[in-house]
What does this fold into?
Amino acid sequence: MLHKLAIQIFACFLAILLGIFAIGALLTGPAPSAVGSLSVDFPVESIQIPVANGSTVYGWLSYGIPGGSVVLLIHSMRSNRLEMLSRARFLRSQGYTVLLIDLHAHGETMGNRITFGLRESESVTASVAFLRETFPHERIGAIGASLGAAAIVLAKQDLKLHAVILESLHPTIEEAIDNRLKLHFGQYGSVLLPLMLAQLSFYLGVPVDELSPITHINHLNSPLLFISGTNDAHTTKSETERLFSAANSPKELWIVPGAGHFNMHSYIGKEYEKQVSAFLSKYLRPQVNN
It folds into this structure.
C-alpha cells in the first residue's frame, strides 16, 4: 500500500515538473502572425531590414515632414507592429516619420524563441542603424512598450537615440515572471519562480541577470520618459520608480492613474498624446522650443 502511494506521489510530482517544463517552452515559443495591409488613409512602405545574425526585421515606414525627426515604434510581447499603429497615426499627424517593426519571433519577423529582450534587442539595433543610414540628418527617438522597452534597454551598444519612451517596463526578469505567476496562481505562484527562471536560462542559454533591464538602464545615454500605471499588476508602481531611480538623467516619470499593463495610448488618449508630444518635441525638435 505504501509502495503504491509512493509511486502515485512520484508520478504526480513528475507530472507537475513536466507541466512546468511545458509552460517554459510555451512561454518562449514564437508568436508569428500575419500583419496584412493598411487602408489608403495611412500610406506605408513595407521595409525589410537585415540583422547582423542573418535574420530580417519586417516593418512599415511612413514618411513625415523632412526635418521633422523620426520615431521607432516597438510593440509588446506576443504582439506585432499593429499594436503601435494608433501611436504611429498620431505622430505622423505631427510630422514625424515613423517606423513600426515586428520584433524577433513576432509578427512577420522570424525567430525560434521569444527571448525577453535579448534577441529582440538585435531587431532594435538593426532598425536604428537603418534609420540612421536612411535619414542621416534627422534626430531619432523610440517608443517601446513592455518587451519593446526591454529590447531598447538590453541593446548591447549605445543606440545614441535623442529621446526614448519606455512604457510598462519591468526592472528585473525575476519580478516580471513572479508577478505573472501570482496573477495566475495567487501568492503560491512564487513557489514556481526558481523553476521558471531555470527554464528560461536553459532555453535561452544565458544567465537570467542578462535579461533584467535595471542592470543595463544606466548604459542608455538618452533622455528618458518612463510611463507606467497605478493599477499595473505586471509591473508595479514601486518597481517602475526603482527603475527610474537607476537611470541616467535627463529623465522623466509619468505614473498614469488607473492604468494597467496595456496600451497606454488606447487608455489615456489625448493626455498620452499631450505628454508624449511634449517630451519628443523637447528633444527631437529643440529648435522649435527655443
Q: What stands out?
A: Residues 2-28 form the longest helix (27 residues). The chain has a mean pLDDT of 90.
